[in-house]
Design brief:
EC number (chain B): 4.1.3.4
Mean pLDDT of chain A: 78
Mean pLDDT of chain B: 76
Strand content of chain A: 5-15%
Protein name (chain B): hydroxymethylglutaryl-CoA lyase
Number of strands of chain A: 11
Low-confidence stretches of chain A: 1-42, 52-113, 418-424
Oligomer: heterodimer
Largest sheet of chain A: 6 strands, parallel
Radius of gyration of chain A: 22 Å
Largest sheet of chain B: 6 strands, parallel
GO biological process, one term (chain B): ketone body biosynthetic process
Helix content of chain A: 40-55%
Keywords (chain B): Lyase, Metal-binding
Number of strands of chain B: 11
Strand order of the largest sheet of chain A: 3-4-5-6-9-10
Family (chain B): Belongs to the HMG-CoA lyase family.
Order of helices and strands of chain B: HHHHHHEHHEEHEHEHHEEEHEHEHEHHH
Shape of chain B: globular
CATH topology of one domain in chain B: TIM Barrel
Strand content of chain B: 5-15%
Radius of gyration of chain B: 24 Å
Number of helices of chain B: 18
Amino acid sequence: MITIKGMQRGRFLNPIPQVVTGFSSSAAAIPTCSSCDAMDTANQLQSLHSRYPEYTRDSTKATEHRSAFNKYNIRGLSQCLNWPKRFNHNSHAASYLVNHHFTSDRNTDAKDFSSKLLKGIPDFVKIVEVGPRDGLQNEKSIVPTDVKVELIKLLVSSGLSVIEATSFVSPKWVPQLADAKDVLEGIQDVEGVSFPVLTPNLKGFEAAVAAGAKEVAVFPAASESFSKANLNSGIEDNLARCRDIASASRSYSIPVRGYISCVVGCPFEGHVAPAKVAYVAKALNEMGCSEISLGDTIGVGTPGTVVPMLEAVLDVVPVDKLAVHFHDTYGQALSNTLISLQMGISVVDSSVSGLGGCPYAKGATGNVATEDVVYMLDGIGVKTNVDLGKLMQAGDFICKHLGRASNSRAATALSKVKAHASKL
Amino acid sequence: MLLDILAYTVSFANFLQFIHFTMSSLEEPLGLDKLPSMNTVDRIQRFSSGACRPREDNFGMGICFIEGRSCSTSNSCDEDNEEYTAETYPWKRHTRDIAQCRTFSQKTMTKGRNSMKFGMIDDSLSDFHSSPRGNSKDIPHSTHKFLSSIPSYVKIVEVGPRDGLQNEKNTVPTAVKIELIHRLASCGLSVIEATSFVSPKWVPQLADAKDVMQGVHGLEGIRLPVLTPNLRGFDAAIAAGAREVAVFASASESFSKSNINCNIEESLVRYRAVTRAAKELSIPVRGYVSCVIGCPVEGPIPPSKVAYVAKELYDMGCFEISLGDTIGVGTPGTVVPMLLAVMAVVPTEKLAVHFHDTYGQSLSNILVSLQMGISTVDSSIAGLGGCPYAKGASGNVATEDVVYMLNGLGVKTNTDLGKLMSVGDFISKQLGRPSGSKTAVALSQVTAEASKI
């Protein structure tokens, strides 16, 4: 049995204000905990510097971060936390405070003891940002091309490595993404980031390739009725279409990402059998998809249904090729994401600011917010390479444009936190 | 009548148009907004008081085998499967097959309790027998390790009337509070935090504590704890008829000082007096620990501190200790070490978790707490109660969302989600704003959408 004394050896017990001192360019006098061990602190600083080299005293990087944050104005947070004013300049540390505290790396003691809960979680999780496509596609008003391009660029600067840029469907059906070609043109010069685009059929695929797309995505459903209603063809016909696209893309050496919708519940059929999902996943895998994203389209999943579904799919597709795409319509997305991570999934789809409502419940939320996912992953100690503060800036930008509040609770809280004495 | 015909004609016309629309091109949009919404009758039926009918006996667990729904368990099922299946899935469209339902129930009968816990109960009526992996026994045990430690029964402690309404800007009238508590009681909740006996100078919203207690005096079979910050509050609570009290320590010195004007040790001394007095009158005392993960002033809180305060409260006689993530900053990475520390000094069955959804993390924190064996969860109807530290940010986790997840996990709660939603609707209307529960919003939007057609 792990005793409390044993726990005290863990790094996470050292108060973070000491550690965060290392981030700022000047040593700050901050309220310290009397039980702090100077040696431990030094070690902790050392390891943090090595883990986050970008936060060393390199002045150019520091200035860059500062200006990014000053723009965002995360100052309120540090005031709330009662830190000296100079910390305002390194407010990123403030956001790290609230969710990095015990887990700048994962606490190995907790891992050993409750190994089954946190051990299986991957060390690195790739976030696939679907906001510019899945998010904006559901907007009532059409977002101008330059705003879309700016959003994508802001998302790129936050460290995201895969951003779904747009969709090559007929503008008659999805007018919001009619400027697909122009969007791709606008992000042509961005390097090191993958921009998959949706291609529902060969025509869309050709258009995408002509516009310079370097990765495409296909979208079958696991439910027959949903497939017929949404894509006007049953699952088999749909898969046949996907095969055509997959073989065409092979000749261009373009990777194909497969999405499966309705993996847990369907608005027509109700519960969807895990076997069906596994069947579609297997087909996508066999036709050469580089990754298969399992989408809970109407957000009704809970760990009780997600686990059997994932087990069925894991039987036929290797775990490193799987991604999860949960909707937060019933508030279940993060717990579903957590259980998926525990089962070894290491790719999560999300949308900045939770863009993209649920088409089945007008006004209800849809995609899970990237900021909330990153907040949780940061807290667990999972590496994402995504900078939460910059991500929030991107979210702020698009929400200002759309004229409404963010659907991300983490972003809302971080932007509104301020000191307030509450009375019991 | 005429309007009904008109509505029907319009909806039919829409439907026809839709068919034409979808059949005319292969290039279907991936947007889904063009699909017809669900049958109005389904929706309305769902929320009527007779909507939730328990199924045939399910080995004493008494829950409905439906994701997102639960029935009051005390009644045995005596229904009409046909009517029942009409509301099987809140999002489901209108085709049902009664025969399949019977097959489903027969099959379920033979599967045993475990299968329900793992969510097999959610198998669709039509798809159940087509799934080769329908039986949980076929699936290797190791993959269920994440669900097997979850308790089979979770007690929900409803804190809306106190923790929720306490944070409202406008004072809610006493009659509304009493009505809220009565309605919550009818949902199957067994513990509802009624009010707080603090000085009205500090919390004017709960100045009517005595009147509220009088109004709920008749409620039987429900526990109604009240907060008592000191002996004076305790005496007032007893005089008003309270039969259970709660005390509120903090794991953070600075938060304790700024919130209740004394440091942790002093507050514990105060509470020892309260628990001593309570013991003499055989009144159970519930202990809360606030700021168990992070403090707005101090930052992260060491798990050992939380364990210390929890142990003190437990030793002084609290029958249950609720661990509160007051500012909602916790994630599984911080919740697990904190729970480990506390579980080392207080038995797990005496612990409850009280997460705030300020950063959207509460349900994943609750899930990991359940996985560690915690079986009591505090939540607030419609997510009432904002975060005092981040104006406009959410606070308490919504009871509807928690119950939705627990139902999906196959965990017994004895609460009726449909009734909870109507209570949430009631109080949200009273407060004049939308519910803080995503489940409630999703299910009610679906209704509203359907009723427009």
